[in-house]
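Sat 14:20. Reprocessing the chain from the morning session after the first attempt stalled halfway. Input below, unchanged.
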Amino acid sequence: MAAKSDGAAVVASPGPEGAAGGARGSACGRAEAATAAGGPGVTGAGGSGPRYEMRDCCWVLCALLVFFSDGATDLWLAASYYLQGQRTFFGLTLLFVLLPSLVVQLLSFRWFVYDYTEPAGAPGPAVSTKDSGIVGPSVSTKDSAAAFRTKEGSPELGPLPAPSSASAYRRRCCRLCVWLLQTLVHLLQLGQVWRYLRTMYLGLQSRWRGEQLRRHFYWRMLFESADVSMLRLLETFLRSAPQLVLQLSLLVHRGGRPDLLPALSTSASLVSLAWTLASYQKVLRDSRDDKRPLSYKGAVAQVLWHLFTIAARSLAFALFASVYKLYFGIFIVAHWCVMTFWVIQGETDFCMSKWEEIIYNMVVGIIYIFCWFNVKEGRSRRRMTLYYCIVLLENAALTGFWYSSRNFSTDFHSLILVCVVASSFALGIFFMCVYYCLLHPNGPMLGPQAPGCICPEASEPCGPPADAVTSPPRSLPRTTGAERDGASVGGERAGTPTPPVFQVRPGLPPTPVARTLRTEVPVIRIDLPRKKYPAWDAHFIDRRLRKTILALEYSSPVTPRLQYRSTGTSQELLEYETTV
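Finished this time. Tokens:
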């Protein structure tokens, strides 16, 4: 089949069932895709595949609770500052709430516009069959009743009737209502709430629908989860992180018994940071078939790990900033520059363009001010150990400078704060060790490691076997007349019988062994190498490729599987027919 989505051409052709592909619907790049109509009994990639469970729905509900508690406490605190006449604190608190929210809502609405805008001159990407006289219908990347009926009812794609004027009018009215609804939602700064609710809806639909539509809804749920996790990660480190440092600095500067409202605001910001980091890592692992999914026990351990390390880091910042405001600003800028340069020299591969990659590295530099964030493929023990050694030294130096300005003999409260910084950091490192030693998806760090690649069909490692012939000869060498006569060839003694190339079997067995028919399933081949973990697969970032994959999935009678261009093995098939 061939499809286009906003200029991205995708070509589809038959692919065998054994091709290595994404078990969770992962692909990379934009280019060639291969698909073939499977016969009866053909299932999607990986058999039944992962299923959306109720605990996934509970996780999303907890994420909504964290989102609302963080925003509500910040707005409540800003209103309290305004009523108390503290206009400076009111302005800073409100600035850290509104500015990041506006940036995230603009990005979310831009994604919606791109996803919902159809190519000019057609209601959706055109899908046809390669090397065939059958031409398929135009398929939209948005769900339609006709596409659902095609997937649930008939195994073939039939021609769709031409839309009438009444149906076209209803379609335009529905599109207008969707645009108005999304505009209102994003103006009310609720774009992420909408995406969370849509994630739950798609996940529940994947549970309730039949097997053929279940996989489709699960793919779309993963797409929506990836979008909202990226948006939340950006917002929390632009809003919750500076808000946390600001409110802690005010609490330390005032001294005495802390007020309830600032304490609630700092607690909500801290939980939001830790939850967003753990949720991001869980969704990232769930989206990749070459990595084992993160369990909820591991996610909770990550939440506690980030919670205590960020708490110690933010409290050290607040203590130092309460006395040395100018030097604190210089320290933050210098730390951000060093961390951004460290990330850039690591040559990350997350985005589709160079400038987007630079912006992404700058955002990661902000994250590194507060906590560890893996951005490079491979073992991260040494890099993480180096980072936390630097953080430990910085926390000790910042807290030591602040404590040196206090009265050692009478200020017992200062000594308690120093102990809180140290104990919080130690607890964070403890939960980090618990995660890596007991709850890591690949197995305990000190025990046997499980393979990172998942092949649901077999227990062997992914890829061709070690003894597989990847480049067999195209044809057999011809036999010369001298060799047939038994002449000396290549130093062999004349008259030595040469074994024939082909031998005729004396007879067939009385009961022929039935051969298993090799079924074929749709395979979407992406002609670019796959991005390595911890990067997202390209179709989670390249929205044109995402729309094309959804269009091909709609047009196929069975759920397709995704396959990347392999960089380590030959692209030739392992089975050949040789003729002489």
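The longest helix spans residues 211-254.
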